[in-house]
Design goal:
This protein is α+β, with helices and mostly antiparallel strands and 405 residues long. The protein contains eleven helices and 19 strands. Keywords: Endonuclease, Hydrolase, Nuclease.
């Protein structure tokens, strides 16, 4: 697994400014080998960002130079921009590991091994900024207009306009009582998306122009779903949801086959003996079987491995799904066998902290629900967070009170 080095203080200042301006970007380190050979590994975060922004999907790309993809690219300096191309490809050798290279990057400015670049995708064009050299903060706060300043502040205004548009739509359409489309746990969420013209689909990307929507009943104290993610079966002891059900499932009343609908937490094992173990040093989250008997130190003895997730993959899902989120609270009432609702409050969050995700998992504030069935398929593994823990994961937030609007 390729790990990028930590940011230095100059790079940290640049990254913080981009985050504060709500700029979505990926970062990549220019390794010494990469600089010599004009070749860079397209790391998992970069691949996920390219796919999210509809720039490129390496999973669909065949190996060999004839399948290379070329993207129009601007290299941004403090004072100017230079048009070039970025090559995205999978070589014939070494299993076709995803690669990229920004052409002519050496010709534009002083470039050192181990510099870190920010990659910003916008309207099918890639913008590349050397975070180790370019003072983004100085450029954007200057009275002088430059291409870099226009790019960053323009994207920031665009991002704010989307959240303003969404808030306006909710105020206009959802602050009066209206019927939920279906009488079910998901009834309000489905109705909100329907009113906003969002079609139901299995996409892992946010719902409304980059903003994720999470709706729930105001009186409900249920946990909020962050995302779903299947375990890494290749490194898990059990290789499928069916195998987990066979070993740990039960037959519910009225059924003739096994199911497993349970919550796993790192605090204590559930009645099936299943729980979570955060292995930060190994970069893993484990679903394990534990003894139900408490040890002298208050912990539980692990008996067996069950399934595994890579923490970096979970971080990618979190950042992709929740760069910006509207958590919608709704008042509800029932009349003539139907449920009615109106939006009362919205928590608007931005830029979750991946390291906090691991801490909250370990503290039992984030849990995993197994919804598995041996025969029907469609297994889900839902990562959920308790409402009181949201500010710890999403420190940038704003609350909109819509009562009486």
């Amino acid at each position: 697994m390729i790990h990028m080095r930590p940011y230095n203080s100059f790079e940290t200042k640049n990254v913080k400014f981009l985050v504060d301006q709500q700029i979505e970007f990926a970062t990549i380190q220019i390794t010494e080998t990469g600089l010599k050979k004009s070749i860079l590994d397209a790391t998992a975060p970069v691949r996920a960002y390219f796919e999210e922004k509809n720039i490129h999907d390496y999973n669909l790309q065949l190996q060999g130079p004839e399948h290379k993809r070329v993207i129009d690219t601007y290299i941004m300096t403090e004072a100017a921009q230079f048009l070039t191309k970025t090559s995205l490809y999978r070589p014939v050798t070494k299993k076709g590991d995803p690669r990229l290279w920004v052409n002519k990057v050496r010709d534009v400015e002083f470039l050192r091994a181990n510099d870190i670049f920010a990659l910003i995708a916008h309207k099918n064009i890639l913008f590349v900024i050397n975070l180790s050299i370019v003072d983004i903060v100085k450029v954007c706060l200057s009275s002088i207009d430059t291409p870099l300043k226009d790019l960053i502040l323009g994207l920031s205004r665009e991002k704010n306009s989307v959240s303003d548009e969404l808030l306006r739509l909710i105020k206009d359409r959802m602050t009066d009582w209206m019927p939920a489309e279906i009488l079910a746990d998901t009834g309000i969420g489905r109705t909100v998306e329907s009113i906003l013209g969002i079609e139901m689909n299995p996409s892992k990307n946010p719902d409304f122009k980059g903003i994720e929507l999470k709706s729930h009943r105001e009186a409900s104290r249920v946990r909020n779903t962050l995302f779903t993610q299947t375990p890494e079966w290749a490194i898990s002891r059990l290789k499928s949801g069916k195998a987990i059900v066979e070993e740990y499932g039960y037959i519910p009343d009225g059924y003739n086959h096994k199911s497993l609908h349970v919550t796993l937490t790192a605090n204590r094992p559930n009645p099936q003996g299943l729980g979570l173990l955060v292995r930060t040093q190994l970069g893993l989250l484990e679903a394990d079987e534990f003894s139900l008997a408490t040890l002298e130190d208050g912990t539980f003895r692990k008996i067996n491995d069950v399934a595994v997730w890579k923490l970096i993959k979970l971080h990618e899902r979190l950042l992709t799904k929740h760069r910006e989120t509207f958590w919608i609270d709704a008042e509800t009432k029932h009349e003539s066998g139907r449920e009615f609702f109106r939006v009362s409050e919205i928590l608007h969050t931005k830029n979750p902290i991946p390291s906090q995700f691991d801490v909250l998992l370990d503290q039992g504030q984030i849990t995993v629900d197994f919804l598995l069935c041996r025969d029907s398929g469609g297994d889900t593994y839902s990562f959920k967070i308790k409402g009181k823990a949201r500010p710890l994961l999403f420190p940038q937030s704003e609350t909109y009170n819509l009562r009486g609007t």
